[in-house]
Amino acid sequence: MVSICGGEPMMYPQIGELVTGILARNRHIYLCTNGMFIKKRLHEFTPDKRFYFNVHLDGMEKNHDIAVEREGVFKDAIEGIRLAKAAGFQVCTNTTVYKETDMAEIEELFEFLKQFNVDGHQIAPAYGYSAVNDREIFMTRDDIREKFKDIDRLAKKYAVRQTPLYLDFLKGEHDMPCTAWGNPTYNVKGWKGPCYLITDGHYKTFEELMTQTPWESYGAGNDPRCEHCMVHCGFEPSAALGINAGLADNLKMLAWSLS
Fold it and tell me: Which whole-number Å values give the CA distances from 247 to 7, 184, 242, 243, 254, in the listed order?
């Protein structure tokens, strides 16, 4: 699976060609976008079961536009979702929960989106890390666990696309080790290491990233920069690897996979 993110990847002039090329390699794609340019550039894409527009929405119109610091973004995103679904594309949403986020509004958002038949939702906490360690907005692990204490009910009511073990981790029921290699990022300088959020170096090849990064030095308890990180693309692999911890976890993952 390839996540095409930014910035705003829909501003990239060859984005349609890039998506076509990745699909030709038989990869699944999440194209992460604020949705503003879907209407303008939809004709450059072809619906495919391996391709999703992943539209970022942090709340209903007023609070979403405040979060992105620009009026009209919510309306453009919703129009993009409507047009993409009408054209046969798969669309999911991606929501960041901040310290001031009202979880009732997130439920209101998911309910509002039902009319467009979106294909699922991703949701993640705004955890503090070294580049954005602002405690007025970003949360500690304890903050996150309080905010996500009711996530099971939300996940059962709507199509939340995270594994149940990761959701347990957000609630504090699992204490999984970070697998930073679960979120490799490639940019113009090469493979960014160790992860999406921390840049201690760049590597020319993926093999160099995997073999030369001192993975044991990272994660909560090992590096203070990792203390409050709960990024889903880093911990979802831990959920998959950790299912051998108990029969109940195996059964939970199996039921989720088949649902």
Answer: 41, 30, 11, 8, 11
Say what the pTM is.
0.82
Is the predicted pLDDT of residue 195 greater than 90, yes or no? Answer: no
Q: What is the pLDDT of residues 211-228, one digit of tens each?
A: 999 988 888 888 888 888
CA distances from 51 to 8, 31, 33, 117 (A): 17, 8, 13, 16
The residue among 213 and 131 whose pLDDT is bigger is 213
Mean pLDDT across 240-253: 68
DSSP symbols for 17-34: HHHHHHHHTT--EEEEE-
Q: Could you tell me if residue 198 is left (phi over 0), alpha (psi between -120 and 50 degrees) or otherwise beta?
A: beta
Contact assessment for residue 59 and residue 22, using Cβ atoms and an 8 Å cutoff: no
Measured from the Cβ of residue 9, the count of other Cβ atoms closer than 10 Å reads 17
Sequential DSSP letters for 173-227: S--PPP-GGGS-EEETTEEEEE-SS-EEEEESSHHHHHHHS-GGG-STTT-GGGT
Residue 84 CA to residue 91 CA, distance in Å, equals 7
| DSSP-derived 3-state class of residue 258 | helix
Amino acid symbol at 76: D
pLDDT at 108: 97
SS3 content of the chain, % helix, strand, coil (to 5): 45, 15, 35
Q: How is residue 110 written in tokens?
A: 């998911």
Q: What is the mean pLDDT of the chain?
A: 88
Element (H, E) at 238: helix 232-241
pLDDT surpasses 80 at 235: no
**Strand, helix or coil for residue 3:** strand
